[in-house]
Design brief:
It is built from 4 helices and no strands. It is mainly α and 129 residues long. The radius of gyration is 16 Å and the shape is elongated. The mean pLDDT is 89.
Length: 129
Amino acid sequence: MNFKKILSIIIGFGTIGLLSSVFATIQGILFPASVQLFNQASWSFYDIIQLVVKLMCVYLSCIAGGIVTSLCGGENKQLYIVGILITLVIIWLWISTVHVFWFWTLLIIGSLPFVFLGAKIKRQLFTEQ
């Protein structure tokens, strides 16, 4: 692997992490109760909506990470590496919090496909020009 491909992995992974953190911070400011979701043993309907918003934010971050990885010269191998790294981070987060099974399962299942979706969006945007 050359330097450009290694850099695409680092930048793509960093993009996902940074955007996820930014989205979580914004959600915490707008909805302060969302910060405590993973410390609860049971959830109301409002809490479930907040979890779905968190899920969508991470998916958007994965799409952006796929776009950035592709823009930096990453190919399928690099996209797989970024997706697997994010999945490992998600598994670690799942182990260290209260288990909301459906939320973490959907995050794990969706992270890699959404990284590839970002790469597909990038290809479509830049081949039409």
